[in-house]
């Protein structure tokens, strides 16, 4: 029975890793451009991994996402700011790992005592906000001058500007994660429990 459970774990980890890679490579799959903003969907895959497989595997999937972002910052940057900020693994990799860790821990703690679908929503919103707040916070903290120049704003207005991005991008991403994660995670969790 343990071998069957391990096979399931490895299979799901491999599939979700492949999905994260595809989301990073295929246009409009990992980032949905809207007028004035871009909604990230890759974090949802990381959160689903954390919910279904636990915080350790969620961290692995988040790490894959972060490493791809880090490599792209050197080879095919998505913006003029990317080679400056995303070449630092503290900005490109660490927040993405923590998405999986935070979502996994929150879900594991919630699911023991309450309805799993509600735990998925809470874990998804928290994981999404961890990514947004940490990435933008670290950019503001470590690259204030470069970020202010890139966004063409006065340095004193950088933090309010970044907080606006949290509101315009981060909140919709968190809502999207809170809706999609239980829709995909609930059947996967049931399947996992049936095949233990």
UniProtKB/TrEMBL annotation:
Keyword annotations from UniProtKB, A to Z: Membrane, Transmembrane, Transmembrane helix
Protein name: ECF transporter S component
Organism: Lactiplantibacillus dongliensis
Residue ranges crossing the lipid bilayer per the database entry: 7-26, 93-111, 118-143, 163-189
Pfam family, one: ECF_trnsprt
């Amino acid at each position: 029975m343990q071998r069957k459970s391990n096979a399931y774990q490895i299979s799901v980890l491999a599939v979700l890793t492949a999905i994260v890679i595809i989301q990073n490579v295929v246009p409009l799959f990992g980032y949905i451009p809207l007028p004035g903003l871009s909604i990230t969907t890759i974090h949802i895959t990381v959160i689903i991994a954390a919910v279904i497989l636990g915080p350790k595997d969620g961290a692995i999937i988040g790490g894959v996402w972060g490493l791809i972002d880090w490599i792209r910052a050197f080879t095919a940057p998505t913006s003029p700011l990317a080679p400056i900020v995303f070449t630092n693994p503290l900005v490109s990799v660490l927040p993405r790992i923590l998405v999986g860790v935070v979502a996994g821990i929150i879900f594991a703690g919630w699911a023991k005592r309450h309805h799993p679908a509600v735990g998925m929503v809470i874990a998804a919103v928290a994981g999404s906000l961890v990514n947004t707040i940490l990435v933008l916070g670290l950019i503001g903290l470590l690259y204030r001058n470069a970020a202010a120049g890139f966004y063409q704003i006065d340095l004193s207005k950088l933090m309010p500007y970044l907080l606006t991005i949290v509101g315009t991008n981060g909140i919709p991403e968190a809502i999207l994660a809170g809706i999609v994660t239980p829709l995909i995670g609930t059947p996967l969790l049931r399947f996992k429990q049936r095949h233990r």
